[in-house]
């Protein structure tokens, strides 16, 4: 047990110490499909500029106020605290004008200039322990309406799964509001996630009826499957 605990601690320490998770996946720096041109940059919660914080807050409210309904005012306060935590990791999606601008990123100095383009989406994730299993937990995946439906969400989740595997996480875990039917369909049917064994509806069906959310997961290893995936 001590050796297992030591191994888990080492995995978590290595994962959280990574400064730029995108550095291992340069092919995911850009997305060019369906008339959409975007550049991805990584970030962390305790390094956000005031403009980036405002962008995150606005996009969260735009997409999540309706699914949360009357719970939103309280939930918004929670999310504002979560987004600036030191353990929060980000992938920011910057929309750029055309394909020619993407090609300019071959220069390191010019690549930095992509941060001046508007943020049209982001992923907020963390490396945490769930039932003593190291997991990558997706706190948020938010996209502006005009970039939805173009394959970008699937692209970002594929990247997230690569990051999880590279960092020896046992699974990707996330929470989805039951009222967000589009998101539920996206994760369960398109990406083949499952309702986790730790989701309220699996732990206690009666309790699950009272909760407005489900916890979904995709496990990569047998041990994580046994703990996190419902039978």
Automatic annotation (TrEMBL):
Pfam families (alphabetical): Acetyltransf_1 (PF00583)
Give GO terms: molecular function aspect only.
histone H2A acetyltransferase activity; histone H4 acetyltransferase activity; protein N-terminal-serine acetyltransferase activity
Indicate the principal place this protein occupies in or around the cell.
cytoplasm
| Enzyme Commission code(s) on record | 2.3.1.257
Its EC top class is transferase
A cellular component term, taken from the record's GO annotations: cytoplasm
UniProtKB keywords: Acyltransferase, Cytoplasm, Nucleus, Transferase
Concerning InterPro entries, the annotation shows:
Acyl_CoA_acyltransferase, GNAT_dom, NAA40
Its localization reads:
Cytoplasm; Nucleus
Q: Which reaction does it catalyse?
A: N-terminal L-seryl-[histone H4] + acetyl-CoA = N-terminal N(alpha)-acetyl-L-seryl-[histone H4] + CoA + H(+); N-terminal L-seryl-[histone H2A] + acetyl-CoA = N-terminal N(alpha)-acetyl-L-seryl-[histone H2A] + CoA + H(+)
Alphabetized CDD domains for the sequence: NAT_SF (cd04301)
Cite the PROSITE patterns for this sequence.
GNAT
Q: Where is the N-acetyltransferase domain?
A: 119-227
According to its UniProt record, which protein family does this protein belong to?
A: Belongs to the acetyltransferase family. NAA40 subfamily.
What PANTHER family does the record tag this protein with? N-ALPHA-ACETYLTRANSFERASE 40 (PTHR20531)
This one is known as: N-alpha-acetyltransferase 40
Could you tell me which species this protein originates from? Olea europaea subsp. europaea
């Amino acid at each position: 047990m001590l050796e297992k605990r030591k191994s888990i601690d080492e995995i978590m320490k290595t994962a959280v110490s990574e400064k730029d998770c995108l550095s291992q996946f340069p092919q995911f720096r850009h997305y060019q499909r369906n008339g959409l041109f975007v550049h991805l940059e990584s970030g962390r919660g305790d390094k956000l500029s005031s403009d980036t914080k405002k962008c995150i807050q606005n996009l969260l409210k735009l997409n999540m106020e309706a699914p949360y309904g009357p719970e939103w005012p309280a939930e918004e306060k929670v999310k504002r605290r979560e987004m600036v935590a030191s353990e929060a990791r980000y992938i920011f999606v910057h929309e750029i004008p055309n394909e020619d601008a993407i090609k300019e990123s071959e220069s390191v100095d010019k690549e930095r200039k992509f941060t001046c383009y508007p943020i049209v989406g982001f992923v907020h994730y963390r490396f945490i322990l769930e039932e003593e299993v190291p997991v990558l937990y997706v706190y948020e995946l938010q996209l502006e309406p005009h970039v939805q439906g173009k394959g970008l969400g699937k692209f970002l989740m594929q990247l997230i799964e690569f990051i999880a595997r590279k960092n020896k996480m046992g699974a990707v875990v996330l929470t989805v509001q039951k009222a967000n039917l589009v998101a539920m369909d996206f994760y369960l049917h398109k990406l083949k996630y499952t309702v986790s064994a730790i989701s309220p509806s699996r732990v206690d069906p009666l309790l699950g009826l009272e909760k407005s959310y489900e916890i979904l997961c995709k496990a990569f290893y047998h041990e994580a499957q046994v703990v996190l995936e419902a039978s």
